From TrEMBL, chain A:
Superkingdom in the source lineage: Bacteria
Keyword Membrane part of the UniProt annotation: no
Region of interest (Disordered), ranges: 134-155
Protein name: Xanthine dehydrogenase family protein molybdopterin-binding subunit
Pfam family membership, one: MoCoBD_2
Species name: Brevibacterium permense
Annotated InterPro entries: Ald_Oxase/Xan_DH_a/b, Ald_Oxase/Xan_DH_a/b_sf, Ald_Oxase/xanthine_DH-like, AldOxase/xan_DH_MoCoBD1, AldOxase/xan_DH_MoCoBD2, AldOxase/xan_DH_Mopterin-bd_sf
UniProtKB/TrEMBL annotation, chain B:
Keywords: Oxidoreductase
Phylogenetic placement of the source organism: Bacteria, Bacillati, Actinomycetota, Actinomycetes, Micrococcales
Boundaries of every FAD-binding PCMH-type domain copy: 1-222
UniProt organism field: Brevibacterium permense
Cell inner membrane among keywords: no
SMART domains recorded: CO_deh_flav_C
Name the record gives this protein: Xanthine dehydrogenase family protein subunit M
Keyword Oxidoreductase: yes
Pfam families hit by this protein: CO_deh_flav_C, FAD_binding_5
TrEMBL record, chain C:
Entry keyword annotation includes Metal-binding: yes
2Fe-2S ferredoxin-type domain sequence ranges: 3-79
Stated name of the protein: 2Fe-2S iron-sulfur cluster-binding protein
Organism superkingdom: Bacteria
Organism: Brevibacterium permense
Keywords: Iron, Metal-binding, Oxidoreductase
PROSITE patterns: 2FE2S_FER_1 (PS00197), 2FE2S_FER_2 (PS51085)
Length: 691, 344, 170
């Protein structure tokens, strides 16, 4: 347990420090830094899902107005390391998925680059492709990059057969696309043997550490700058091929910046997505609802180009007890684009199946769904056997139920109708690990005006500019106005990625440590120019405790029975996330996660056409994310607490937990409204119409 | 985007003559559909004739009590026009159901009518499409067809027309005024758009170079009317199904009787679909929930849904009956209970 | 294929030469370096590029620059002349009506245009009485702001901010 920081700024409202620039549109995102004489890149993409680009004829593009260079595998610079199938691009004619980069045109204007790219003739040798995920797929296998082995405890089959109450159902989640509002963008400039990338990333240092060995250059020769990130939700956590393509293009035209903003359509095949999952869940319980059997077999789609498992079984490992347990996670590698992180990878998809299944068990057992969860709340982590840091799921459920008005819910479906619409309420649990990554370093330097605090952290709308300034102010014991924070640049000390809700815990630990170092090295009033570094170490509490956040979602939906229309009416989330550093920005993150959960529940689905191998609704008109009118009323709150196991702030991070379980709460509300159980997301109105 | 020449038209006749003479020339009005298509490579003109400065921006009363709306009146201005709000509320509602506030500020009345389909394969030049490239084949058949037709489609094309406004105009029996190289002609909106047949590349009966200069609405007819749009999102989404309807009920006698009904459907066909079969059932009938369902069933008898849009048949049925119930004040029929039903 | 174009952007006059294909958005960003208008989708499907053209909100990505020769364009930056924030911008700051900030200038411009439309009495699809006065309820604001996507999910705060700004400027 670490000593908790004494706080003044932390825990209080602070308006976003980057806000004034953002409401005018002046905070520079990757594309928007001033550049002299830039060139513009437009890529070539494969129009088949598997085979070879047998011949690429660049001549028409090379002759077109304004074209400076055409990049293909025939002339692309060598790579030093080609193990990463997603990033080792332009190596050969081989095509692993439709939309894969085959080259790029670099021209003087964006219009010229795009037009010239359309002139290039590509001759394909097409092979049969396979992009269809199914449960009995012969290529199904254990993930190579998974986070845990199968779990087989006791005898699930016997326990299920003997259970007084049981359910045995299949659930699915579709292909979902992060779609941050700022498309992935990189501007690359090669100057001598140095390469500078202005890009949109959730981690400048991790991106550099990934790219440098592939490009075969020293990390010190690459600088990555990313002060403002227009959303990411995981898709800007790991570098994708667009960043590599722009870096390669810059090698070909030294001295001139090359600008490439991925188009919205290209994002659907290039910048990662949440892989679809198939989840088979069997639960057995006594008549009082206590679980005796817990079986969860899940499969996710992965890519032949690079494996990424969407491990939906992850939350199933630690959520509920049961003596007889079975959890298996498989992936099916297909000829599809490379999946990646999307907000709460694993937890968000897994808590769809599991939390709908729990609702089904509650119905089967005739028990209130909150009470069912209370009766199955384990005292120690069923996965590791460790005690929990603070497992306050029951508090979230009960406090949330009070605040939401759960007592007004009629457990009988189709019991409530208003103005021709059926109305129903649903609940679901939320959980997310509380992790801290080692290795972030902060530097604090005394200046005439106060303290310059430097760390290569990222703000993708998460409030980093603000909350790290609050943290530094308290760590230094000064007003926030004396803190001059610098983030988003590899010229600053190393920072770990803004991902997995680890950013705040990891970076703040480095800042608090640096402030302690500054005091111990330079005294209470350091001289101007004095500086100190602090590094975040791994959280020692992780050895002794199962560290998690918890929460409970409550949703009320209405459904028009004659037309099938389904709309959210209101939603409330109650969370246990340790100390909340800035209630304003934390509430926004939680509400934002819940809003994305509404999209997951009611709207979002990438339609992968098996004949072509690409997502055909690849834009924001056809791939629906919620609009303002869909979000009638969402509120979030949290338990007033501090988690001494989480680090010096006692805070656990709130970037992901808002989406976890949100979709299940809506699905459960839809059942309560209509009696129709939807197990395949998203819930379209079709489900409520007679067939 | 291919390079193209650009000209700003000074008058309608000049614009028509310029485009008529150039087979690959197009008119540019609000741009909300054409500029989209230029970027996608769906449209590849060699000349763009910008008609945004033409003085086709008036809404004028006609001698017969109707209304003439200039083709370059913006959708938002038409929806806000007090005469349209008062006398043609279903048109105002249809306009306001479409797109977003920003897009309605740009989109014009003429351009809205000539929107092209939102079929994802039509918009994706990497997949075959008969509408884009005659003879290439239809990718939608056997593909993603949530937004596709259930009525009047062909083996060559199952696309739908995306406009809300055109559905309302179809129910209103509006007329389109068209200027061509040889003079002006008038076309009923119901005759403007085509069914795909074996020529899906042809959305409308307009000839190359013909320019819509105005819409004419007949005098307001009696009865209650509205426009209802069923969509996957609460706003800013194309219709799965929409209904424009006007019903005039005679309440003078012992039992009320429907004197006249006009119904048009959106999202179900290659053109705004005038529901004549449903209208025939309603005319002279007593307004009841059963009558409304019978009217919907009469219209949907010809429906041929695809694997991806079978839901549209009950959805259209529900939407028609729900709108008629709303307009006549008759309680709606609820579908039978499906408790413990499951959706796989 | 250069064409001469005159634009007034946030009070500054510009004469420039553009390709016939150049959109108003690309003219702002790539030719004039005016980055306040954002590119989110480039197809009129997200609203991030929303600017005021002669006072009306438009998607600048779906307009050819040449169509708007001579126009007065206002971005979110132009709504804060000399750094003096508009009522709307102050409300966005006070109510945390954004997270990443990328959709924000478009939201602000859209809200400004929307308030003017409502002040002119323009109805929306959720207005019950098409002929009555416009009351900017939260439902009305949600519908009228639905042309601006926010993937961070700041909608509830955007509605609060716009609602407060509407009250304040009444």
């Amino acid at each position: 347990m670490s000593d908790l920081l004494t706080t003044t700024a932390v825990g209080t409202h602070q308006a976003r420090l980057d806000g004034p620039a953002k409401v005018r549109g002046l905070a520079p995102y990757a594309y928007e830094h001033p550049f002299d004489d830039p060139l513009f890149l437009y890529p070539l993409q494969a129009k088949i899902a598997r085979g070879q680009a047998a011949h690429i004829d660049p001549s028409a593009a090379e002759a077109a107005e304004g074209v400076v260079h055409v990049l293909t595998h025939d002339n692309a610079p060598e790579l030093a390391d080609t193990d990463d199938g997603e990033l080792a691009i332009l190596r050969s004619a081989e095509i692993g998925f439709r939309g894969q980069y085959l080259g790029a045109v670099i021209a003087t204007t964006p219009e010229q680059a795009r037009h010239a790219a359309s002139l290039i003739e590509i001759t394909y040798a097409q092979d049969d492709h396979d992009v269809e995920l199914r449960e009995d797929h012969p290529a199904s296998r254990e993930p190579e990059s998974g986070s845990g082995d199968d779990v087989r405890t006791g005898n699930v089959d016997t326990a299920l057969a003997e259970a007084a109450v049981s359910i045995d159902e299949r659930y699915s989640t579709p292909m979902e696309h992060n779609n941050p509002m700022e498309p992935h963008t990189t501007v690359a400039l090669r100057d001598g043997d140095e390469l500078t990338l202005w890009t949109s990333t959730q981690g400048v240092h991790p991106a550099r550490a990934t790219l440098a060995p592939i490009l075969g250059v020293e990390q010190e020769k690459i600088r990555i700058i990313s002060p403002h990130v227009g959303g990411g939700f995981g898709s800007k956590g790991l570098p994708h091929a667009d960043m590599m393509l722009t870096a390669l293009a810059a090698q070909a035209v030294p001295g001139r910046p090359v600008k490439y903003a991925v188009t919205r359509q290209q994002m659907f095949s290039i910048t990662g997505y949440r892989a679809p999952t198939l989840q088979h869940i069997r639960l057995g319980a006594r008549t009082d609802g206590t679980l005796t059997a817990f079986a969860y077999d899940a499969i996710s789609m992965s890519s032949q180009t690079k494996e990424f498992p969407e491990e939906s079984t992850k939350p199933g490992r630690m959520m509920y007890a049961g003596d007889n347990r079975r959890l298996t996670q498989r992936v099916v590698p297909l000829d599809v684009p490379v999946p990646s992180w999307m907000r709460a990878p694993g937890e968000a998809s897994g808590m769809v199946g599991l939390e709908i299944a729990m609702d089904e068990l509650a119905v089967a057992a005739g028990i209130d769904p909150i009470e069912l969860r209370v009766r199955n709340d384990p005292t120690t982590d069923p996965d590791t056997g460790l005690p929990f840091n603070q497992r306050r799921l029951i508090d979230c459920l009960r406090e949330g139920a009070d605040r939401f008005g759960w007592e007004k819910r009629n457990p009988q479906p189709r019991a409530r109708q208003e103005n021709g619409w059926f109305v129903g309420m649903g609940v679901a649990s939320a959980t997310y690990p509380a992790s801290r990554q080692p290795g972030s370093v902060a530097r604090i330097r005394r200046t005439p005006e106060g303290f310059e605090v430097s760390i290569g952290a990222a703000d993708l709308g998460t409030g980093t500019w603000t909350v790290l300034s609050q943290t530094a102010a308290d760590a230094l014991g000064v007003p926030i106005g004396q803190v001059d924070l610098r983030i988003g640049d590899t010229a600053l000390p190393n920072a770990t990625v803004a991902g997995g809700s680890t950013g705040l815990a990891s970076w703040s630990t480095a800042i608090v440590t640096a402030a302690q170092e500054l005091r111990s090295e330079h005294g209470a009033d350091p001289a101007i120019g004095a500086e100190a570094h602090g590094e975040a170490e791994a959280n020692p509490a992780a050895e002794k405790f199962a560290l998690h956040s918890f929460g409970a979602h409550f949703a009320e939906v209405r459904i028009q029975p004659t037309t099938g229309e389904i709309r959210l009416r209101r939603m409330f989330g109650m969370f246990s996330a340790g100390r909340i550093v800035n209630p304003t920005t934390a509430r926004s993150q939680l509400i934002g996660g819940m809003t994305m959960g509404v999209g997951m529940a009611l709207h979002e689905k990438g339609e992968l056409d098996p004949r072509f191998g690409h997502v055909v609704n690849h834009d924001l008109a056809e791939y629906h994310v919620p609009v303002n009118a869909d979000i009638t009323d969402i509120e979030a709150d949290w338990l007033d607490e501090k988690d001494p196991q989480a680090g010096p702030l006692g805070a656990r991070g709130v970037g992901e937990i808002g989406i976890v379980g949100a979709a299940a709460a809506i699905a459960n509300a839809a059942f309560n409204a209509t009696g129709v159980r939807v197990r395949d997301l998203p819930i379209f109105g079709d489900a409520f119409l007679p067939t | 985007m291919n390079p193209f020449d650009y000209e700003r038209a000074a008058d309608a006749a000049g614009a028509v003559s310029t485009v008529t003479d150039r087979p690959d020339a197009v008119f540019l009005a609000g741009g909300t559909n054409l500029v989209d298509h230029l970027k996608l490579g769906v449209a590849e003109p060699d000349l763009v004739v910008d008609i945004n400065r033409l003085e086709l921006t008036e809404v004028e009363a006609l001698d017969d009590g109707g209304l003439r709306i200039g083709a370059m009146v913006r959708n938002s201005d038409a929806a806000a026009d007090p005469r349209i709000r008062r006398d043609y509320p279903l048109l105002a509602r249809a306009l306001l159901s479409g797109a977003s506030g920003q897009l309605r500020n740009a989109a014009t009345m003429g351009g809205n009518l000539l929107q092209r389909t939102r079929c994802v394969y039509f918009q994706d030049t990497s997949t075959p499409c008969n509408k884009r490239e005659p003879g290439a084949g239809c990718s939608a058949i056997g593909g993603y067809t949530r937004y596709h037709a259930i009525l009047g489609a062909s083996a060559d094309c199952v696309a739908t027309h995306p406009s809300d406004m055109a559905v309302a105009l179809t129910a209103l029996d509006a007329t389109v005024v068209v200027l061509g190289a040889t003079g002006e002609r008038r076309i009923s909106v119901t005759e403007l758009h085509r069914l795909p047949g074996d020529r899906p590349e042809q959305d409308t009966v307009l000839e190359h170079g013909e320019l819509i200069t105005a819409l004419e609405l007949p005098p307001p007819r009696p009865g209650a009317s509205t426009y209802r749009k069923i969509r996957d999102r609460a706003s800013y989404a194309f219709a799965l199904v929409s209904v424009a309807a006007r019903v005039d009920v005679d309440t003078a006698g012992h039992a009320p009787v429907i004197r006249e009904a006009a119904i048009a459907l959106g999202g179900v066909a290659h053109k705004p679909w005038r529901a004549r079969a449903a209208e025939a059932v309603l005319r002279g009938a007593e307004p009841t929930a059963e009558t409304f369902l019978a009217a919907a069933d009469a219209e949907l008898e010809a429906a041929e849904p695809l694997d991806g849009n079978r839901f549209k048949v009950p959805m259209t049925r529900g939407a028609i009956s729900s709108v008629l119930a709303e307009l006549t004040g008759v309680p709606e029929a609820l579908p039978e209970s499906t408790t413990e039903d499951t959706h796989e | 294929m250069g064409h001469s174009l005159h634009l007034t952007v946030d009070g500054q006059e510009h004469t420039l030469v553009v390709d016939s294909r150049t959109t108003l958005l690309d003219a702002l960003r790539d030719r004039l370096g005016v980055m306040s208008a954002k590119k989110g989708c480039d197809h009129g499907q997200c609203g991030a590029c929303t600017v005021l053209v002669d006072g009306r909100r438009l998607n600048s990505c779906l307009a050819l620059a040449l169509t708007h020769d001579g126009a007065e364009v206002t971005t979110a930056d132009g709504l804060a002349p000399e750094g003096e924030f508009s009522t709307l911008q102050r409300a966005f700051l006070a109510h945390d009506a954004f997270q990443c900030g990328y959709c924000t200038p478009g939201q602000v411009c859209s809200a400004a245009g929307m308030l003017a439309e409502a002040a002119d009495g323009a109805p929306s699809v959720v207005t019950d009485d098409l002929e009555g006065p416009v009351e900017l309820s939260e439902e009305e604001i949600r519908e009228r702001m639905s042309g601006n996507l926010c993937r961070c999910g700041a909608y509830v705060n955007i509605v609060t901010a716009v609602s407060r700004a509407a009250e304040e400027s009444r």
